[in-house]
């Protein structure tokens, strides 16, 4: 007992000690964030920076359960059409303004009405927001929306200072004012973003850095060299071939977690003339293509086994994964038989893919595997922005592409597979699937949602508008001095509890 | 002479306008859609429509050009669609970085290239000449990108002498600034030094064979004076031409070197802008670097005047 106590005291002393000396954390990012305004931005790395700058109403834990952040408790009522939240007391924004229910209301309204807002579709289900009392806020929804908590655990739930937002309008990104553990200092585009500790933060005792510097270093080799040279303390998206190097270096460590997204082959089902091929029209041909691919080998050859093979829009680690439909093994004989049955032996199609080294190698492996089953895959490397345009215009037969993933499973499938989905570039349309996915959106009962998604996955697995191949892992490399980093599937870098050993 | 340069200065205006029109038209030919590229993964139709509207992307190309030119005349180069930062602010941030890197690289190139060129011309056929040529050839053949990564691994990771990358403003911390700029400047400079050396060498060889050098020698002018005053000065003319062109190229941004050393200059900026279809940024950077290129050429022409009496007459 006394020993435990003295350990706790010692740990406490160390905390105080590290807080006393000025500590800087330097993080290497693979891209340059876009505009730093949660209502306007769209980049993944932007969200990493927000994790230090902005508090959200709710957060997730590593198992994707929702946990309090600015909201300390919440309750659904009225059949899922009302969400009432209790707010944290004594929270201030970086400009000294008070955070309260009125601030929440102003933030949601900004997301809904700012012309530049890219959050409009995310908060569409919210009809009105009521200020019940200064620390209680009520969201009145147009229809039940099971994805709302997930939405509020991301950019739409980030609270900016209403005063600063009203003054700056769409120009808030020049100097973002939030309530997070760090506040904005300066930004040099394509070089760095500097933040400093916000001492008045409600969780400041758990923050052990005085300054955080995010540096943009696109080349993965150079990013790693900076870490090795001690110019960085950690980096995101370590390239899989470098894992062995980092593991062999006693001064460095590797941390990884399976992400929320997927990579796969999106097949043009019904989007214009180019869908009128055996591949687009005949599910047997798509099944043959899937059976020709050895996912484990693909992962091993291209990514040194770093990622997780999968066959559904959620990873095998998700609670929504349909266990009755496991990742199928490669079966070339069956693939050949299916192709013969469909009268499509020697069938040739074009697959476009983003012209980066990883995707190129993956496309080549897929091409070689599919050839053994009798497919003639023509590869077309395409620059990303062009590829998206071709895909939405229907000018493609198949695309090797992925999705970064969302906390709620709805975000991985609804917009892709419902008849009117906003990013349904396959134009796959099955009213039965629509019904299931809509229903899963409208109930907060997890068991019920699991059943609905399981049924939807069954149909989607039969018809395969998208062949899911693998779920990328997020891989970080850290200095071994850095302690307390917890990987989350959303790949955000949460700084609470992290510290540098001296 | 003054009238000539004034005429040249006035001539800059139509040239820059033509360049800007050309770049504007080329950008429109890029496949892909800026609104789509900017709308994010969700590609919300409402945001796409808003972006199109706000940035006049629905209008015909000459109307878009008109909006842009109208802004330029008022000193407004537009804003970056990606970050909402005004393009003029970006240029102010990046221009000094680009200029510093370009000047340092060219200085390194001159310091290495010219003496090596002169020496190998004077000692033609000797082992020294051979060594200089081999060094120059390898300087030309090693890709910047690769040399950069090798240098980082050796100097920063293994030896720990210099920071691996990054940039510090010379006004904040001049020592750190030099530490971060010396490697990229060296990588760029050595590649150019090789070209410089080859040109200096051949120009020197040619001049040394010319009649006036023979005359000078016949008059009994001391050899050192012949080489420096008569030969070298004239041999400098092609070197000035090459140096100017190289400097101009550097001012447009050294894409790969900036990428490796994460120097926030024009090169990285323009590549990112093209991939994001951030038209205003591409347009602004090209305007700025083409202006610099034209001005540099003017300076080079003036240098010819001073170097060669025959042009002066």
Topology readout:
The complex is a heterodimer of chains A (502) and B (313).
Chain A (H helix, E strand, L loop, with lengths): L1 H19 L3 E6 L14 H10 L4 E3 L5 E3 L2 E7 L4 E6 L13 H13 L12 E8 L2 E6 L6 H5 L9 H7 L13 E7 L3 E6 L13 E6 L3 H9 L5 E3 L6 H6 L3 E7 L3 E6 L10 H4 L1 H10 L2 H9 L4 E2 L22 H10 L6 E7 L2 H16 L3 E7 L1 H10 L4 E6 L6 H8 L13 H11 L4 H18 L2 E6 L1 E7 L2 E2 L15 E2 L2
Parallel strand pairs in A: 1-10, 1-11, 15-16, 15-17
Antiparallel strand pairs in A: 2-3, 4-5, 5-7, 6-7, 8-9, 9-10, 11-19, 12-19, 13-17, 13-18, 14-18, 20-21
Helix pairs in contact in A: 9-11, 10-12, 14-15, 15-16
Chain B lengths: L1 H28 L4 H5 L6 H10 L6 H13 L13 H36 L4 H15 L2 H15 L15 H35 L2 H8 L4 H29 L3 H7 L4 H10 L3 H29 L1 H4 L1
Protein name (chain B): ABC transporter permease
Subcellular location (chain B): Cell membrane
Keywords (chain B): Cell membrane, Membrane, Transmembrane, Transmembrane helix, Transport
Coarse morphology of chain B = globular
What is the terminal separation of chain A in angstroms? Answer: 28 Å
Strand content of chain A: 15-25%
How is the CATH topology of the largest domain in chain A named?
Dipeptide-binding Protein, domain 3
Count of individual helical segments of chain A: 16
Class of secondary structure makeup of chain B: mainly alpha
CATH superfamily of the largest domain in chain A: Dipeptide-binding Protein, Domain 3
> What value does the average pLDDT of chain A take?
92
Ranges of chain B where pLDDT stays below 50 over 5 or more residues in a row are none
The whole-angstrom Rg of chain B is 24 Å
Q: Find the count of extended strands of chain A (DSSP E, 2+ residues).
A: 21
Low-pLDDT ranges of chain A: 9-20
Give the count of helical stretches of chain B: 14
Largest interface: A-B, 49 and 46 residues
Taking the alpha carbons of the first and last residues of chain B, their distance comes to 10 Å
Signal peptide (chain A): 1-22
Protein name (chain A): Peptide ABC transporter substrate-binding protein
InterPro entries (chain A): Peptide/Ni-bd, SBP_5, SBP_5_dom
GO molecular function (chain A): peptide transmembrane transporter activity
């Amino acid at each position: 007992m006394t020993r435990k106590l003295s350990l706790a005291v010692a740990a406490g002393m160390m905390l105080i000690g590290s807080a006393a000396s000025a500590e800087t954390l330097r993080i290497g990012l693979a891209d340059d964030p876009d505009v730093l305004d949660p209502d306007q931005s769209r980049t993944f790395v932007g969200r990493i920076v927000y994790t230090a700058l902005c508090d959200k109403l709710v957060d997730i834990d590593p198992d994707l359960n929702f946990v309090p952040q600015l909201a300390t408790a919440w309750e659904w009522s009225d059949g899922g059409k009302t969400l009432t939240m209790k707010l944290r007391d004594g929270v201030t924004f970086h400009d000294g303004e008070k955070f309260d229910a009125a601030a929440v209301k102003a933030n949601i309204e900004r997301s809904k009405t700012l012309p530049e807002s890219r959050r409009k579709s995310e908060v569409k289900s919210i009809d009105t927001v009521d200020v019940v009392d200064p620390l209680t806020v009520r969201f009145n929804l147009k229809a039940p929306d099971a994805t709302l908590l997930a939405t509020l655990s991301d950019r739409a739930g980030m609270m900016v200072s209403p005063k600063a937002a009203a003054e700056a309008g769409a120009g808030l990104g020049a100097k973002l004012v939030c309530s997070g553990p760090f506040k904005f200092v300066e930004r040099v585009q394509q070089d760095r973003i500097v933040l400093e500790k916000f001492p008045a933060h409600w969780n400041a005792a758990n923050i052990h850095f005085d300054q955080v510097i995010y540096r943009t270093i696109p080349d993965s080799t150079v990013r790693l060299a900076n870490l090795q040279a001690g110019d960085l303390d950690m980096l995101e998206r370590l390239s899989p071939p470098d894992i062995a190097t980092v593991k062999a270096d006693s001064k460095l460590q590797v941390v990884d977690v399976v992400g929320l997204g997927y990579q796969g082959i999106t097949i043009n089902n019904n989007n214009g003339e180019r869908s009128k091929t055996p591949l687009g029209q005949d599910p047997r041909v798509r099944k043959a293509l899937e059976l020709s691919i050895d996912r484990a080998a693909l992962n091993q050859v291209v990514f040194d086994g770093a990622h997780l093979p999968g066959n559904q829009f959620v990873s095998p680690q998700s609670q929504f994964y349909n266990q009755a439909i496991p990742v199928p093994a490669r079966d070339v004989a069956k693939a050949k038989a299916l192709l013969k049955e469909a009268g499509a032996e020697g069938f040739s199609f074009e697959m476009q893919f983003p012209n980066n080294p990883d995707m190129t190698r993956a496309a080549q492996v897929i091409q070689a595997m599919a050839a053994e089953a009798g497919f003639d895959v023509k590869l077309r490397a395409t620059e990303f922005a062009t590829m998206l345009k071709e895909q939405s215009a229907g000018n493609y037969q198949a695309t090797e592409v992925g999705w970064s993933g969302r906390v709620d499973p709805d975000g991985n499938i609804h917009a892709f597979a419902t008849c009117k989905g906003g990013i349904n570039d396959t134009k796959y349309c099955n009213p039965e699937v629509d019904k299931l996915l809509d229903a899963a959106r409208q109930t907060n009962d997890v068991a019920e949602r699991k059943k609905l998604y399981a049924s939807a996955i069954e149909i989607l697995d039969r018809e395969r508008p998208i062949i899911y191949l693998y779920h990328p892992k997020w891989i970080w490399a850290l200095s071994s001095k850095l302690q307390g980093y917890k990987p989350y599937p959303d790949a955000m870098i949460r700084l609470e509890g992290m510290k540098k050993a001296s | 002479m003054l009238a000539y340069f004034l005429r040249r200065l006035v001539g800059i205006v139509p040239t820059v306008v033509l360049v800007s029109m050309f770049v504007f038209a080329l950008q429109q030919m890029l496949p892909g859609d800026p609104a789509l590229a900017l709308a994010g993964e969700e590609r919300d139709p409402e945001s796409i429509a808003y972006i199109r509207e706000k940035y006049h992307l629905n209008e015909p190309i000459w109307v878009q050009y008109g909006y842009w030119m109208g802004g330029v005349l008022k000193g407004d180069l537009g804003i970056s669609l990606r970050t909402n930062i005004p393009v003029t602010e970006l240029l102010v941030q990046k221009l000094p970085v680009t200029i510093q890197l370009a000047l340092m690289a060219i200085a390194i190139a001159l310091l290495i290239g010219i003496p090596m060129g002169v020496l190998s011309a004077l000692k033609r056929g000797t082992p020294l000449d051979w060594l200089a040529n081999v060094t120059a050839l390898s300087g030309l053949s090693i890709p910047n990108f690769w040399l950069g990564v090798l240098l980082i691994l050796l100097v920063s990771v293994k030896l720990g002498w210099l920071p691996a990358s990054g940039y510090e403003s010379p006004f904040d911390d001049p020592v750190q600034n030099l530490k971060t700029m010396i490697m990229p400047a060296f990588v760029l400079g050595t590649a150019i030094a090789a070209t410089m050396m080859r040109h200096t060498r051949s120009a020197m060889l040619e001049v040394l064979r010319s009649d006036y050098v023979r005359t000078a020698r016949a008059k009994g002018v001391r050899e050192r004076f012949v080489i420096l005053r008569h030969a070298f000065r004239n041999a400098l003319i092609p070197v000035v031409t090459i140096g100017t062109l190289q400097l101009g190229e550097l001012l447009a941004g050294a894409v790969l070197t900036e990428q490796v050393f994460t120097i926030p200059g024009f090169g990285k900026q323009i590549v990112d802008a093209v991939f994001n279809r951030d038209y205003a940024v591409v347009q602004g950077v090209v305007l700025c670097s083409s202006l610099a290129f034209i001005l540099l050429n003017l300076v080079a022409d003036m240098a010819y005047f001073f170097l060669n009496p025959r042009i002066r007459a």
